[in-house]
Amino acid sequence: MRPTNRPWRRVTLAVLAIATLVLSTGCSAGLGGPASSRTAQDGVIRFTFAPDPIWDYMNETGVVEAWQRETGYRIETSATWDEFGLFAGGHADIISTASFEVPGLEEQTRRETVIIGRYNAERSRILVRAGDPAQSLADLRGKRLGVFTTVSGTLVWSALVKRMHDMNLVDGDFDVIVADIQNLSNLLARGEIDACICYPDLSARELRDGSVRPLYDGKSSADLFAELAAPGHDGPMGNVFVARKDWVDAHPAEVSAFLDLWDRGLAEWQAHRDEMIERYPQHFAVATPEDIAFMKAYVAEHDWVVDEVRFDPQWAEDESSIFDLMRETGVIGDDITDPKFLPTQGVQP
């Protein structure tokens, strides 16, 4: 059920550096598995992850338990949206965040990191009301644009809008309104904003009833980025798996086993996607049978979860090009460096 209160505020902000903690997964329920002891131990992988349906499914169906028996490793989890905080405190070996937020993670936590795996693409879309004649953001200059943060996916859209339309998304060309992520599409349908950077899994009701529609032929930020900068690429990633570099260097077998576990999870998603949506509707912000059916059909056509967690050097190079685009368009400074990647595709422990 969606909240009934809709507080929001108007802001005019310069684009921030990638150093602000934000919500990046768009899910909303408990994380399965044992709570983390938060103390490093041999044979234990401390994994901190925001609520997620695939992880819950792997726990409830015995996949994680079987993996622990087979590998001899134990995985301890902490269910929290504050992944940065636990990582900064040294209480997590692996967390998840957007690839383009990793430099901010290092800056905030003062820990050297490496991206070890991929999970899902940045899936936000630009939505407008159904009757709005706008064909792109170029037609919405000066209008009220709803966002849930001025970083995260907004950074990607800022770079895209600058490249496509030579417009400044957060600083000057739009009346930016920061609102609760779950309320944006409802605010749009009610006419309180004119467009939004919205997640489809948090906009199911309005998309289904036709009160809002996507621009750019329904393409996500990741889709448009691929067209403009990295043909065939599936990013930028809304979630990658990031680990402390010192831990990765000292635990290569654990890293490989962790990636094997998540490859199993991605396979479970492909095989049981509809079941997961039915089983965990809260993760997709749907409740009614109609919205659940809509989300099944939508995800079947626009699946943002990757097929394989491992990646090769070419994928890492393509993923890094989001930083080239953001630097070229002035969204981030030239001093922001690319994150480090650990390509392991095809590599056995």
TrEMBL record:
Key word Protein biosynthesis present: no
Subcellular localization: Periplasm
Domain SsuA/THI5-like: 120-275
PROSITE patterns: PROKAR_LIPOPROTEIN
Gene3D superfamilies the UniProt entry points to: Periplasmic binding protein-like II (3.40.190.10)
GO cellular component: periplasmic space
Transmembrane segment boundaries: none
Residues in coiled coil: none
One protein family per Pfam: NMT1
Protein origin, superkingdom: Bacteria
Cleaved signal peptide residues: 1-29
Family per similarity comment: Belongs to the bacterial solute-binding protein SsuA/TauA family.
Protein name: NMT1/THI5 like protein
